[in-house]
Each structure stands twice: as C-alpha cells, then as structure tokens.
Design brief:
alpha+beta, 2 domains, 7-stranded antiparallel sheet, 3-stranded mixed sheet, 24 helices, 10 strands, binds zinc ion
Length: 499
C-alpha cells in the first residue's frame, strides 16, 4: 500500500505539473472568485461572460479561429467527450463546437472582456477592501497583471453561451487530451445544470459564489484525475486523501510560472482555491456517496460557504452558519458613502491570518469562523477608506482566541503604528491610514479600520455596544495632535479628527 501511495503521489504531482496550466485554465478562471472578479474583470471576464452578459453583448463572442481545427484534434475531443460522459454518468445531450486558439486570440478576448466589464463599482469596492486588508498592494496594476497571468496560464476554456470549448494551441498535443478532460467536464455539467445560472444564483454573497466555483473547478479536477487513471481502475474515490498530495503542487506551479510567482500571495490563494480545495471537497463528497452519479446532488444542494468547501464534513452534515448583520450607518455617518457590503468567509479570514500571523495560526483559528459581514466605505472628499468587519464566533472563548490572532495580524499588517492601546479583547492604534480598532464582546469581534475615535464611537453606538475602553480624545487624537482638551475648544476635536 505504501508503494502504491508513493507511486500515486509521484504520478499525481507529475500530472499536476503538466496540467498546472490547466489549473488556471478555464473560463472559470475568470470567476475564480468573486474576489478575482474584483480582481479583475478578466476574471469576471468570465472568460466567457455570464449568459446574461453574453446575450447583451453579442460582440463578446470569440471570433472564428484563425485556422480550422485539424482532424486529429477533433477526433481526440470526441473520444475524450465519450470517456467523460461515461466517467461522470452524464451522457452528452448535444454535440459541442471545439477550436484551437492562439495566444493572441485569447489575449484579445480577455482584454475585450475587461473593457466590457459591467460591474465597475463592484470591482472598485472589492479592490478597496483588499487594499485595506493589506492583501494587494495599493495601486497594484491588477488588470494588467491578470491579463498577463491569464494569457500565460490559460490552457483551455469552455463557453456555456456558445457551448463551445477552446484549447490553447501552445499546449503540446500529448497534454491536450488532459486539458480536454477538464474542460469537457464543464461542458457536460453545463448541459445538465446550467453552470452560469447556477454559480450566479449565489449572488450577492461573494463567499457562497466562491464556494460554487470551487464545486465547478474541483469536480473538473477530480474528473480529470479519474480520466488520467481510467486504465488503472483507480478513481479519486479510491485514492488516498488529496490534500497532502495537492497542496505541495502549488509550490511547483509557482516555480513553473513566472507571472504566478510574482503574484501577491492572496491572488495565488484565490486563484488556486477552487481547484485545490474544490478537488479535495469533491473527493470527500464522492467518497461519502456512490460516486459521480450521486454528485449531481451537490448541484441541487450547493455549499453555502467556503467553510463548507474547506471542511467537507460540515457540508455533508448540513452545518450552515446564520447570516451576520451590520447596522446601517448612512444616517449616523453621512459623510461616508458605502461602496459595498458582503461576506468574506473562512477563506478570506484564513488568507488574512496566514499572511500576517503565519500558516499555523491561520489553521488553528480560521476554522472557528461562524459567519461574518463587512462593509467598505469611502469618504467623498478625501477618498479615505473605512472598513467595518464583524466576525461571529461560536462563543466568547473562541472570540478571545480570535482577538489574539487578529491583534497579532493587525500589528504586523501595520508595521508603522503608534499610540497602541491594548486591553483585554480591545486594541486601538493609529496608523498612516487612520485609526484601527479591534474589539471582541461575547461571541462577536468587530474590526474597524480607517476611522478616528469619534467615528468609531458612533459605529459602536449604532451597533448597540457599550463604549469602548479609552475615552474619545484621550488616546488617539490627543497624543497625535497635542491639543488642549477638546471640551475647552469646541470644534477643535472635530478638526483634529479630520486630519
Ligand atoms: Zn475549469
């Protein structure tokens, strides 16, 4: 058995190395995540725009290929389609169009999709959120980076709108069938479940949408493994757990792709999550049921969060976290405009902790996520950004542990902080981007970033929480401005606060 496992591990890693282009390959790349979407239109470029988008923008369809596909390519596609139909227990309902595409054709398509992006406000808000969390550098050229990355990485795509799949012509012929096995899984599932409509039904919950993309990419990865080993009579259900096999492959992919290696860690994580965590999830679901014939239940009963992807047992047991709410701050903070409100999920929390407190801390703490909601605001005049992030934990003990981890995270994220005030379950400090506040009460943690103490007190009040330790004007503002007590100079505090 040990020999088998060693062999399997080696083969799997080889598969992933050769197929690593596949990883970031399909249309789904684009949607890799809502975050990526954020990240990019490219992403939302949906390398193949959603059905609605495609219908409203017929010009977005990929033009005819520069050269007709050769007979060998067409025969290979037909053979792989038949094999995938059998593996997935999804007989093809209709024939598919298929073409080879050049790098220039794919790049032009990506750029055009970005230009046609229909959700610029959402992208802007997501970008501001990621900058505020320190997950992408400020003013990072996300669009340019993603075009380069996707052009480099995309090996194949499936377009549900035209029911056509494309293979990049720079993929060696020997690897094309493997890419096909992945893409044709999307094609077959699309015929049965309507992938775009299904994935987008999770909107506006970003975390749930990312979870659905993990189902799509993860099942296509798992099906690709089944195809790879079809002659050995071994499928992913019989394989040892994929987690320890797949995770090291990410490092290998980094080495292989210069663009990928340059990506901020968050981008790498969000790009890989649907493929790696999605494949691990798929394997556990297949093992728990009767195989692919049972997998259609996942489309009828989709995972509700990235937590269910990261912990397949929670999905199988039907553990769903109740939604978390934030107060409406519009009346209390009229000078701030809310750009977006959404759910980050365990995936985002894990990434944040991992980047600033380390992998071990992230693995220890992130699973205690029991729901969250965040809002990102922008001050109309100064364009200053304010993040309000409420995290729910199972109980006060978990919340205290989370406080320690997030406190460590925030102090590392803002190397240049001052006026640090630490009390049990309370942190307050000044940063070049404004005041940062973290407080846990009962099973809830509130993280406010970009406010002065006065604004923070307003948020606390609107939340219905008691006033935080350290009175307004006693810590943050007074030390920074060295003003005389605000009470003696009406208006001064507000001026100081606006600096
Ligand atoms: Zn895919």
């Amino acid at each position: 058995m040990a020999d088998f496992q060693t062999t399997l591990q080696t083969t799997l890693q080889t598969t992933l190395q050769t197929a690593s282009t596949v990883l970031i390959s399909t249309r789904r790349v684009s949607r890799i995540s809502t975050w990526l979407k954020v990240l990019c239109c490219v992403l939302s470029l949906g390398l193949f725009g959603g059905v609605a988008r495609a219908q409203s923008s017929p010009t977005l369809a990929l033009p005819a290929p520069s050269a007709p596909p050769n007979a060998e390519f067409l025969r290979a596609a037909d053979e792989v389609l038949a094999e995938m139909s059998r593996i997935l227990a999804l007989p093809a309902k209709a024939p598919l169009k298929k073409t080879l595409r050049t790098s220039a054709e794919i790049r032009a398509f990506i750029v055009r999709q970005m230009q046609e992006d229909k959700e610029p406000e959402k992208r802007y808000a997501d970008r501001k959120t990621l900058e505020k969390l320190g997950l992408i550098p400020r003013d990072f050229d996300l669009d340019g980076f993603l075009v380069d990355l996707l052009t480099e990485q995309i090996a194949g795509l499936y377009d549900p709108k035209s029911q056509e799949f494309y293979i990049a012509d720079w993929i060696p012929a020997a690897e094309q069938r493997q890419v096909m096995s992945h893409e044709l899984t999307h094609a077959l599932q699309d015929q049965y479940f309507g992938l775009d409509t299904w994935a987008e039904a999770a909107k506006p919950n970003d975390d749930a949408e990312l979870a659905r993309h993990a189902v799509l990419e993860g099942s296509a990865m798992a099906a690709m493994f089944d195809w790879q080993y079809r002659h050995q009579g071994v499928g992913v259900r019989e394989m040892p757990d994929l987690a320890p096999l797949l995770e090291p492959a990410i490092a290998g992919d980094k080495a292989k792709s210069p663009q990928f290696a340059k990506a901020p860690p968050f981008l790498r994580d969000v790009l890989m999550f649907p493929y790696i965590s999605g494949a691990i999830f798929t394997q556990q679901v297949l093992k728990a049921g009767a195989g692919w014939a049972d997998f259609k239940k996942v489309f009828a009963n989709p995972p509700s969060s990235t937590q269910q992807i990261l912990h397949p047992q929670l999905y199988l047991q039907g553990v769903v976290r109740p939604p978390v709410t934030l107060p409406d701050l519009a009346a209390a903070l009229p000078e701030w405009k809310r750009l977006e409100e959404n759910v980050g999920g365990e995936f985002l929390l894990h990434t944040l902790l991992q980047q600033y407190a380390g992998e071990a801390r992230a693995k220890e703490l992130a699973p205690s996520w029991a729901g969250d909601r965040y809002a990102i605001y922008e001050q109309s005049k100064t364009k200053q950004v304010l993040l309000v992030y409420r995290l729910h934990l199972a109980n006060a003990t978990d919340a205290s542990r989370m406080f320690d981890g997030l406190s460590q995270t925030l102090q590392a994220r803002y190397e240049k902080h001052s006026n640090l005030l630490l009390r049990p379950n309370y942190l307050q400090m000044d940063t070049p981007e404004g005041g940062v506040f973290l407080r846990c009460l009962g099973g809830d943690c509130m993280y406010v970033d970009g406010a002065n103490r006065e604004t923070y007190d307003v948020i606390t009040r609107e939340l219905g929480w008691p006033t935080a330790p350290g009175a307004a004007g006693k810590n943050t503002e007074e030390k920074r401005t060295r003003i005389v007590p605000a009470a003696l100079l009406p208006g001064t505090q507000r001026l100081a606060a606006a600096r």
